[in-house]
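FAQ: What does the model actually see?

It sees only this:
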Amino acid sequence: MKDGRVKIYWCDGNHENHDALDALEANHPGEPFIPVMPGVFFAAFGSILTLLDGTRVMFCGGAQSDPEDIKEREPHKSWWPQETIDQADMARLPDPKAAHVDWIISHTCPHAFEIAGRDIAAAKNSDPSKGFLDRILDDYHPKRWWFGHYHQARAGEDKGCSCRLLDRFGNRSGRPWMESILLTKEE
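And it is asked to produce this:
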């Protein structure tokens, strides 16, 4: 990273300072990847990054915090009401008939993905963001999808999409964190 050859692109989750991200986007209107420091870029909702091999990756950040967690937080200080995906975000998406998407990076996942398992808190399963992500899954038909909201490492396939739930950094399982990102055999 120090020599500038590695770049990091990230999308928002539910614990970001969404007021700051809204201001960042307002200062960079229409810019899909906004620099936040050298080599690190915030990926606006619906932005598409084309990798060197031609793979097209769409970023769809946002997720709802657990309602019990919200009770402990202060609005616009430690919790932001604009954390979830909404209709305005969906309106920013490119036309699925014109925009080919191979992979999706999001914070939470569609309801369609069963790999999160029944042990996930019911509040996270009722997240309205998940319904919007179901629409994205149906409209764009990606081959792969990565998300991390549940802080566990799991993999599966739903609706023809290979999906991978990423573990948290510094997990207690003893596995290297990056292990959860590694791809299985290419199709």
